[in-house]
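Posting this for the archive.
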Amino acid sequence: MDTKNSEKSMTALVCAFARAYHREVNEVRIFDDSMARELLYDEEYYAISKNMSDGIDFFNKCFKGDKDEALRWIVDNQLSPSPLGRGAYAERSLEMAIRKGIEQYIIFAAGFDTFGYRQPRWAERLQIFEIDHPLTLEEKVKRLVEKNINVPNNVYHIAADLNEAEWVEKLTAHEAFKGSKKSFCSLLGITYYISEQSFKGLLNALNKIIPTGSIIVMDYPAREDTFGDKRVKKQEMLAQAAKEAMVAKYSDEEINGLFSGCGYQVQELLTPDDITDQFFCHYNMANKDHPIKALLSVNFLTAVKE
C-alpha cells in the first residue's frame, strides 16, 4: 500500500507483472488476468523480466538453466503464488457472494487490479469502488487513458490514504455508494504492511459504514507456519528493498479474535495446503515441470459482518 512516498508502488507493479507473465506463458492458468499486461509499459515489463532473471542467484544459488528458465523459476516460485492465489480466491468468493445479495464491491489498496475493466457479465450490476493512495491511483488512471482502456460506468476511483480517516469520508460521500447495500470488501495485500492497531482501526471504520451480511475477503501473513520456507524471507527482503516493509503477522487465534472484536465472524480460513489444493491443482497437473505452491506463511480468510 503506497502511503508514504511519490514513487510508483513496486509491489503493485510486480504483482501485475506476475499476473501478466502467468497468462502469457501458460494455457492452463490459476488466474486469468487478461488485462494486467495492458497496464504495463513494454519497457517496464522487459526491465522487470531482466532484473528478475539477472537476480537468480539471490533467489536460488543452485539454479541451472538459461535466462528464460531462470525467469520462469522466479515467477512461479517467488512472485506468482500470492497474487494468483488471492486473485482466484477473491473472484470466486465474489461470484458466490453476488448470489447472496451483494451489490457493492470495494477494493481497498486497489493498485493495478483489473477486475473492473474485464468484469464478467455476472458483475455488471455491481457498483465497484477502487480506493488507493492518490499518487498510486493517479498513475493507474494515467495508464488507463494512455492505453485507451475503457472505464465502465459502474467503476469509480476514490483517491485516499487508508492510513487516514479521509477514505471513509470520500467513500460515503460518493453519490454511487449506498450504506444500506451489502458490500463485498477486498482487503487483499494490505495486512502485511500496516500495524495490527492500524488494521483494527480499518476494520472498525469499515464496520460503521457497511450493513450486516457484508463480506470481507483478505490474505494475511501467518505467525507460526513458515516451516523454514526460504521464499518467505526473500519476499520480506524484496518488500524492504521496495520501501514497503512487512510489519505484521498473525496466529489463527489472533486473527479470529481481531475480527470478533470488531464485529465480524470468520467464516472461512484457508491454509497454504488448502490454497494449493483448491486453486493450483488443475494448473499443476497440466504443468508438472513448473509446479506452483502457495507460500507457507500466507492464509486466506472470509469474514461476515454480524
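The domain at 10-305 is CATH 3.40.50.150 (Rossmann fold). Strands lie at 104-108, 127-132, 155-159, 183-186, 215-221, 264-270, 298-305.
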